[in-house]
Write a structure and sequence with these properties.
Blueprint lengths: L2 H20 L10 H21 L6 H17 L10 H25 L12
Helix pairs in contact: 1-2, 1-4, 2-3, 2-4, 3-4
Length: 123
C-alpha cells in the first residue's frame, strides 16, 4: 500500500467530514446534532479511506467522483424514508459526497502529489 496517499486521503476525509458535519448544523434539531455530525464525519472519513486504499485504474477525476458517489449512498439513501429529510436531502447528501470525493482526490493526487501507483504482482 502507498502509505503517503492513504494517510493524506484519510486525513482529508476526516477534515471534510468535520466541515460537512458543521455545515447546516443550525437547521438540525438539537437532539439530533451529535448523531448527524458523527454520521457525516464517519461517512466522509470512509470516502477518504476508500480513496486511499483503492487501486482502480481510473483517472483521478473519475476515481474521486465515483468513490464519492458510492461512498455517500449508505448515508444518503436511508434519508429518503425519513419524515424529516426526504428525497431532496438524499440528493443533497449524495451530491455533497461526490463533491467531497472529488476534492479529496484532487488534493491527494494533485496538491500533495500522492497519485495512485500500479500494484505489482510478484510470482
Amino acid at each position: 500500500m502507498y502509505a503517503k496517499r492513504f494517510w493524506i486521503a484519510l486525513l482529508l476525509g476526516i477534515l471534510t467530514g468535520g466541515v460537512c458535519g458543521f455545515m447546516g448544523n443550525s437547521e438540525i434539531p438539537e437532539e439530533m446534532r451529535t448523531m448527524v455530525f458523527m454520521s457525516s464525519l464517519l461517512n466522509r472519513a470512509f470516502i477518504g479511506f476508500v480513496i486511499g486504499i483503492s487501486a482502480w485504474r481510473l483517472g483521478w477525476v473519475a476515481h474521486g467522483i465515483i468513490i464519492g458517489f458510492l461512498g455517500s449512498l449508505p448515508l444518503s439513501v436511508p434519508l429518503i424514508w425519513s419524515p424529516d429529510a426526504g428525497f431532496s436531502v438524499c440528493v443533497l447528501f449524495t451530491v455533497a459526497g461526490i463533491v467531497w470525493g472529488f476534492l479529496i482526490e484532487l488534493f491527494t493526487t494533485v496538491v500533495f502529489k500522492a497519485p495512485m501507483k500500479a500494484v505489482l504482482k510478484e510470482d
